[in-house]
Amino acid sequence: MTEKKKTLEVKNLKKHFPIKNGKVVRAVDGVDLEIYEGETLGLVGESGSGKSTIAYMIVGMYKASDGSIIYNGEDLTKRGIKRTKEQKGNIQIVFQDPSSALNPRRKIKKSLEFTLKLHGEVDKGNLGEKAEDLLEMVGLPREFGENYPRSIGGGERQLASVARAMAANPSLLILDEPTSALDVSVQAKVIRKLTELQKERNLSYLFITHDLSLMRNIATRVAILYLGKVCELAPAEDFFEKPLHPYTQMLLSSIPVATDEEELLRPEKVVSTGEIPSPVDIPPGCAFHMRCPDRMDICSKELPQMTEVKKGHSVCCHKYCVQKTAAEAQEEEKEVSSDEK
Ligand code: SF4
Fold this sequence. Notes:
binds iron/sulfur cluster; 8-stranded mixed β-sheet; alpha/beta; 11 helices; Rossmann fold; 12 strands
């Protein structure tokens, strides 16, 4: 079997924001992730979980407090936020609000030409034609470039901002809630186009959302974030069929379902108690213990470690750390008894 090629690897990534009185907001607190060529890694979490902060560090808008972001064998954190033109082009971001990426005073075509010029992708004489090719690539008419961003609909504006990102010829697109501000019918159009683009160009996506129903349809693997840490990471099928972390089960038990099949897969309703702790004052042990229906004594004392319970499916919960220890102990016992024979 051929090995999957890694597009990006994030190791022990942290972003701590100092605030008043010597306190610190631990927005991202030791995240490990890998994104493979041609796949969509879904990053899910409630607001304040740190998902956008991870995106901004990967794309170079925020400097990481610690850890590494490895692209093409090179650690991008070594350069702070001063990346080369090529490094900036390789990883592009599409924001929830497309106005952040398109200059309201420039016609769309001019914005695309500007990005093409910036990344040196085409000769000056071909800029106009290439900008129109980009519009066509995302399913917009070539003449659409003569519009200003404010004079077109939200879905078209978002597709134009995807075209702007593609002007830099990236291999990784970070999609930060790209459809959450759009009507449902328009969302489907944007998602369809993103899926087509990925297939045509073997792009890798980091898709950030709080919408698990959407994730079910587009993700190859899913990572769940809680207070700056990944608490479960699994192939999408496993994630929706056999969620392990109590927090994942809680989120999945409360999403609306459209079909009988989805209803069968939905975990029993998990009711959480307590409030989400402040990221300035994260409790000791498992950060979810104050809300967890399965908490044990150890949970408020010791930090659980990420444990791979099955190939590609990891969970950060004492329930599974204990299981692994038991399995390891059994394995060790077997080894000892075979040595003794
Ligand atoms: Fe719940 Fe304990 Fe697992 Fe945290 S470690 S999710 S508190 S069982």
